[in-house]
Amino acid sequence: MKASRFLITTFITLLLASCVPVTPAPQTAQAMGTNTVTYRTEDIKRVNMSHADLQYLPLFASREEDQALISTVAQALTKLIGKAKPYTNTMDAEQHFFATDFTITFNDDTSLSLTFASQDTVVIQDGEQEYYAQNADVVKELNKLLKMPEQTRISTLQPRIGETIRLTGSDAHSEQGPIQLYVIPDGILSGYTSVKGESFPSKRALRIYVGTISQARYDVSFPLPAYGEAVDGSLQPITPGKWELTYVTNGLTSSRQIEIQAPLKPLLSINGVPVTDPAIQPVLRDGRMLLPLRSLASALGWHVSYLGHSKQVSISTSSNGSAAMTAPQQKKVSLWIDGEPLFTPEAEPIVLNGVTYLPLRAIADAFHFDITWSKEIGSVHLQYQPSLLPLDGYAKDSTEYAIAAIVNEYAVALNKRDGQKLKTLFKQKDYFFPAFEDIGYRQITAVRDIRFQSRYEGKAYVAYVTFNYLFNRNGDNSSSPGIALILENNKWLIADID
To answer: Fewest CB atoms less than 10 Å from the CB: which of 10, 247, 271, 281?
Structure first.
């Protein structure tokens, strides 16, 4: 029943969205000067206020704290419309620029503009028509709503790689969306389009984080990475020294100079993200960096088993669970990967305080990781691809094969934050889920399992997929969402994700 309800909801959303009723805004033009319309708080979706090039803190119907203030706007608008007359004068450009403006957006996305021509006169613009009303008390009440937003606050201007940095503010102006964070070595803002079709503030900018804007406000915390994403999609090192921390909100770009500090101890980064989990911290021994094998394997979604009598550590990187292994009893700990032994001196596990470690170079060679050592910050960067569904296991059913392939493509594109690719996998135009700002640094480490349920005579499917995660903000290391897919023009597309 769960799958049926999920799909029914999806189809209703896709097929009947255009039928959802929206309460129309009151007919302003017909009501001018007639006292026949009363504006209600619930009629208004958003109020934007400005003066010259100053943008005041907007009001949103979705924000409970703004309800009383929006009620004040609704009452003021009712009074002004009741006294409105056609406006025959013309405000010159300078007068209009330095006047206070209110833009009131209604639930049906129509809007009215109020411009304060004087201390008692308001010019009302409804489309191409202009009216005016005089009410000094209303102007005074509306002026009380003008609040300057809080500019961006940064927890430190000398952040250390691997340590948390926090940015807060209320100057984003939009109701929701991303706050994009970059570091730029020369501070020159020129604008550039990346290979993924995204706008970067500079060709040399490195994107370090994407956070969430909610009702013009943001509060983002993240460990400062040792690597950032360049315009060509590659990860490039962030070295100690002076950088411009640049943040983009709703098309507005601001910068502050910061001086980045090197980490106090060796740092491990995975796919550009600093590992802050104490269980995965590297240790140095005899000039070699060692990583805790079980914790690392668990973080990457691998299966680990240990046979005490034969001192064998087995790791399975596939989605099929642990692989069989057979070896005689021995004195030293041995490592087996996907059923194959690694009998080399470099791959010999080391047990420290009851924890099994493996040299970093041996991990790179055994699992085909790309590893980069940064001498400037004494840290190492590990790049990997997620473990995906083995498509040959679904070759007997063309539909299941196609859906498994889409799930694999989805996992890879989401890890790369490739919005262009993700949009090609979804039915709804210019849409994908989840939004990058909602997942922080989260990476899919493995696609572990998939179950298929056919619906509507095979024209729709629900695929229940198990993902393993690393760097998940809510702490969960796995989830099993339902992915609804629809067949359209002989191509399977993602309709929704539960």
So the answer is: 281
